[in-house]
Amino acid sequence: MHHHNHYYGHSHILARYCGLPQVHPPRIRGYLQHGWNVGDGWNPQHEFFDGAWRWTWSDAPRRRGHILGRRNYQAIGAPWLYLLDLEPDLGVVPEEEREGTLFFLFHGWEGGKIEGDHKRLIDEIRETEPGPVTFSLYYTEYERPEIRNSYLDAGFDVVSFGKRGFAYEGTDRRFLFRQLKALRKHKRVAANRLATAVFYGASVGCDVAVYGDPMAMNGEDPLFGGNARVQRLWPELHGKDLDQVVAREVVNQELGTAWKMPAQELRPLIFDGVTHD
Which superkingdom (predicted)? Predict the structure, then answer.
């Protein structure tokens, strides 16, 4: 199984949903999209074994993949949707007790660091957000004191939900569980680039916003058109004060809500060599 399938504990969540071992999940038969993506579900350099299936969140990546001449796509909905089914009460608080904004910084990865104007972003957040702000950093930025301390010194709570894992090592199976719990207690979710966590927040009732210095990542591949293309194609999700009804309609499309499957259909489709009860 490709190590990307383990990212954020996705394979573990899907195994649990299907009634299979979740600590050591069975092999997923193909490649699972691990984050919201403006291409065909994966980064431009991703290599695939011939004939392998590609499990996407929604139908849009399949269409874009077909344009590139690729085949063997099937939309199944985001693993996050299955987590919501598994954990309907995790972190839930009364609506009147939800407060503040959970802000996600555009993050790098093990092979690339971000660079940008953090002070400018802090000033804009202070001017915009009506309540307390919790700032989420991926571990690649959380472990850089110059970034982490700039937000702590600004008076924000700073959190990190863990590591997605890489090359079969360091996968935090509870990553999305902690993120879900945090999102369900906030009124707003925001980010300086449209990213996966914004869609997750909207799916659990947060108002969404995307604004601020988008920053840049070393070695960022321009093949998909960069952030300018994202802003052009999803204008309804960019800004500080959005039409939340429209935003949630887009979120449902991108997360693949209509493609989510019952366990008895998902299990034989994606898991290889699993016997039925």
Answer: Bacteria
> How far is C-alpha 162 from the geometric centre of its chain's CA atoms?
13
Q: Would you state the pLDDT for residue 277?
A: 37
**27: left (phi > 0), else alpha (psi -120 to 50), else beta?**
beta
In angstroms, what CA-CA distances link 98 with 63, 94, 106, 226, 261? 38, 7, 24, 34, 30
Write out pLDDT tens, residues 198-254: 999 999 999 999 999 999 876 666 666 688 899 999 999 999 999 999 999 999 999
Cα–Cα distances (Å) from 237 to 189, 202, 233, 263, in that order, read 12, 11, 9, 31
**CATH code for 95-255?**
3.40.50
Query: Where exactly are the structural domains of the chain?
Result: 3-85+256-270, 95-255
- Give CA–CA dist 172/176, Å, rounded: 9
CA distances from 85 to 4, 18, 144, 189, 275 (A): 23, 12, 35, 21, 23
For residue range 129-167, list pLDDT tens digits in order: 999 999 999 998 999 999 999 999 999 999 999 998 877
Residue 156: which H helix or E strand, with range? none
